[in-house]
């Protein structure tokens, strides 16, 4: 039985994980943050990285220390919670949101600016896109070869070309705007917190575990060690890329403000390289979306083969790709409106699961610590979601707005801490004790 991986294998698996996390949204937001931050870019992007990359890495480490299984980690709350929570997360980051979005974003940012808009353009492109996703997802043992060794290096080379040109052709750093002027670190910190990437990290870390096992590592401690190593290397790559993309945005302050990072990058690339720059950006965007789609489809199908035991992995991949193709063309905007609030409600529960897992030895693995914190966070998050669409009575709105950090979107933190403390002192029943030791 092997207990070590070669450096090249570690690098390939790390690049696979990087690529799965680094979707189009991760590519277009840092430049916009950099532009808005101006001369405060280094401070704000650091805050962004601490929460976006930091929380994702913590989620990967938590799963690794729990034996490499999300179910094992979540079962510390209760086995039924683990099953239901996993299904909700996989559906939310899978065919109901992330996978269809990769197809639509690839078209809107990567293809539409280069070609005349025809009614069938999106239909044809998304059919090709999800066909490629289907074939590259069919064999999960080849994910490292397809993504870690081919697609990701090409993507990184394109980003390096963009960043090198920006460094060699420095522009003007604009004045910071809004909160990026007064509290740049905290503004970046909060933006990174609200990316929701840690939800994906919690379940997509299984891709790394499977890749490590496919390279002959079967011993649990070795799997945990290499999962943490690969996760850390992927986090380092994300950090470097975020700094570079932030610099590209910040150093082009003379271009004015943009509605989104995609428009900003397109303008910058056209200035740098002309039409060929936009083609280069299109390739980068499509590759970023493609690698994320392949990784999420594979993770989704892998998990649901354990839930739907009579459906094969290949059939699940096919069903997900067909469903995502249809949704990306017909109902994505509606699904985003429905799914995004669900993700925002799930996010605090995810973070609580991760953080409490690190203090398990101090809480004696009492499930009520998790449950108390999660119930409190869930209630506040639901109220916040309803408050955003003005669907709660004024007297409740007035009360919740007094909760610390509520107006920043993280008002659940203090109630969760209080709920966890209360849960610690709730007497454990025999059944709960059995759950807590599984």
UniProtKB/TrEMBL annotation:
Source taxon at top rank: Bacteria
CC per GO annotation: plasma membrane
Transmembrane segments: 7-29, 41-69, 81-99, 119-138, 150-168, 188-211, 223-245, 279-304, 316-336, 342-359, 368-386, 406-426
Keyword Transcription regulation tagged: no
Any one GO molecular-function label of the UniProt entry: branched-chain amino acid transmembrane transporter activity
Function noted in UniProt: Component of the transport system for branched-chain amino acids.
Family indicated by similarity: Belongs to the branched chain amino acid transporter family.
Protein name: Branched-chain amino acid transport system carrier protein
């Amino acid at each position: 039985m092997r207990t070590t991986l070669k450096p090249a294998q570690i690098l390939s698996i790390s690049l696979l994980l990087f690529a799965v996390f680094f979707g189009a949204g991760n590519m277009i937001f840092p430049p916009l943050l950099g532009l808005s931050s101006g001369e405060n870019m280094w401070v704000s992007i650091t805050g962004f990285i601490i929460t976006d990359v930091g929380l994702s890495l913590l989620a990967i480490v938590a799963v690794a220390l729990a034996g490499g299984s999300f179910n094992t980690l979540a079962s510390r709350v209760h086995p039924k919670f683990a099953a239901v929570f996993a299904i909700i997360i996989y559906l939310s980051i899978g065919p109901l949101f992330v996978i269809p979005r990769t197809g639509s974003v690839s078209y809107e940012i990567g293809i539409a600016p280069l070609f005349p808009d025809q009614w069938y353009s999106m239909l044809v492109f998304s059919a090709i896109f999800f066909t490629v996703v289907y074939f590259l997802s069919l064999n999960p043992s080849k994910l490292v070869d397809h993504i870690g060794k081919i697609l990701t290096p090409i993507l990184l080379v394109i980003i390096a070309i963009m960043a090198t040109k920006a460094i060699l052709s420095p522009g003007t750093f604009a004045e910071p705007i809004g909160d990026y002027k007064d509290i740049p670190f905290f503004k970046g910190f909060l933006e990174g917190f609200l990316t929701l990437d840690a939800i994906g990290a919690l379940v997509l870390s299984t891709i790394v575990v499977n890749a490590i096992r496919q390279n002959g590592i079967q011993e649990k401690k070795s799997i945990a060690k290499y999962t943490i190593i690969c996760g850390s290397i992927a986090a380092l790559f994300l950090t470097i890329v975020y700094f570079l993309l932030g610099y590209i945005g910040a150093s082009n302050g003379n271009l004015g403000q943009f509605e989104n990072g995609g428009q900003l990058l397109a303008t910058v690339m056209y200035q740098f390289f002309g039409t060929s720059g936009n083609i280069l950006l299109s390739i980068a965007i499509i590759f970023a979306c493609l690698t994320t789609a392949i990784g999420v489809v594979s993770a989704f199908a892998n998990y649901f083969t354990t839930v739907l035991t009579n459906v094969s992995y290949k059939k699940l991949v096919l069903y997900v790709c067909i469903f995502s193709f249809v949704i990306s063309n017909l109902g994505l905007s509606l699904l985003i409106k429905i799914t995004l609030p669900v993700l925002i409600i799930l996010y605090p529960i995810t973070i609580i699961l991760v953080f409490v897992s690190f203090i398990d030895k101090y809480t004696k693995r009492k499930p009520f610590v998790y449950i108390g914190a999660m119930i409190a966070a869930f209630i506040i998050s639901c109220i916040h979601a309803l408050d955003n669409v003005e669907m709660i009575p004024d007297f409740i709105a007035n009360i919740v707005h007094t909760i610390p950090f509520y107006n920043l979107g993280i008002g659940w933190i203090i109630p969760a801490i209080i709920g966890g403390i209360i849960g610690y002192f709730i007497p454990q029943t025999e059944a709960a004790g059995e759950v807590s030791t599984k």
